[in-house]
Amino acid sequence: MRIRVIAPSGAHLSLDRFDAACAWFAARGHEVRCDVPRTSWQRFSDEDEARLAGFHAAALEEDIDAVMIVRGGYGLSRLLDRIDWDRVGASVRRGVRWVGYSDFTAFHLALLATQNLHSFAGPSFSGDFGKEAPDPYTVASFEAALSGHPQQVVFPGEVTTHPRSPVPWAGEVHGRLWGGNLSMVAALVGTPYFPTIDGGLLFLEDVAEHPYRIERMLHQLHLAGVLARQRAIVLGAFTEWRAVPHDNGYDFSAMVAYWRERIATPIVTGLPFGHIERKASLEVGRDYRLASAGDSWVLSAC
Q: Which residues have a catalytic role annotated?
């Protein structure tokens, strides 16, 4: 593959990891192109105008196969209303795969909302491929997704019935897969960059957010009418939060139990996606099938 690497959000966290990722891809015969500065501007990879120019330049390249982000962090929100989405849409229609997660969720949702086109929620360049040994599952899922033949995602999870579900629940649902980082999803509600998805499969993850903050963001989606319109909500990894003494037993499981009582939409946990080493690559905007299989779930592209 010919891969353009951009940094529309945060600055490098580790140049050693970035260089290791470049070497990893080169060793496998891929061509990596990157003009991202090795220094930073404030907490960002560069000034806003420079990051925007790099974004647009990547969208104009006609001889690349994929665009990947160095990392997430924060910063893409500052560019959303200045991105030429028609230009980005033309890139996607040429077959370029745009890949990332975390802060890049804003890109996935905006592309859906403005162009009705697919992109890939998947690993970041440095964070996932700059390790001494990139996770084999992450690598396999990434390569399969970019080849146009995404792997089935099989993960353990509780299999329950949901008698109040707005659709008949028989352990299988189909819908358009969308979502990503919960903080970014909630932040885009009410903006032109939030897609209207009915009957979808909404997948969510986050990092360093206490369960009460996760619950609050889910309330934002619930009160906006989003959760009730989905066929299922699929939760990935919610990592790096710490309980405090006055939680009194309120934790992630308690928060999920609350939502399972509050709304009729089925909620499934355990999706291998988020700020974790072992993550699936998912085609945002594509139709997927979610089915129970014994004590596991299977998420597969239609």
A: 102, 205, 275
| Cα–Cα distance for residue pair 51/70, rounded to 1 Å | 12
Block residue for tokens 């903080």? 183
- The domain that contains 19 carries what CATH number? 3.40.50.10740
CA atoms within 13 A on the CB side of 239: 13
Q: What is the mean pLDDT of the chain?
A: 94
> What one-character DSSP code corresponds to residue 246?
G
Read off the tokens for 133. Answer: 């040994």
In the chain, the percentage of residues whose pLDDT exceeds 70 is: 96
Pair of tokens at residue 291:
């089915």
Domain containing 158: what range?
Answer: 153-301
Instruction: Give the number of domains in the chain.
Output: 2
Nearest to 280 by CA among 271, 291, 269, 267: 271
What is the C-alpha to C-alpha distance for residues 10 and 44, in angstroms, rounded to an integer?
4
Q: Which of 38-52, 119-133, 288-302 has the lowest mean pLDDT?
A: 288-302
**Which of 194, 215, 299 lies closest to 263, judged by CA?**
215
Inside any domain, residue 145:
no
- Asked if residue 275 belongs to a domain, the reply is yes
Mapping DSSP to helix (H, G, I), strand (E, B) and coil, where does residue 253 land? helix
> Which CATH number belongs to the domain containing residue 282 in this structure?
3.50.30.60
Beta-carbon count within 10 A of 259 CB = 18
pLDDT class of 56 with cuts at 50, 70, 90: very high
User: Exposed/middle/buried for 179, CB within 10 Å: 0-12, 13-18, 19+?
Assistant: buried
Task: Report CA-CA distances (Å) from 242 to 34, 87, 207, 278, 279.
Answer: 37, 42, 11, 21, 22
**Is pTM, for the whole model, over 0.85?**
yes
Tens digits of residue pLDDT in 199-249: 999 999 999 999 999 999 999 999 999 999 999 999 999 999 998 999 999
Domain membership of residue 147 (yes or no) is no
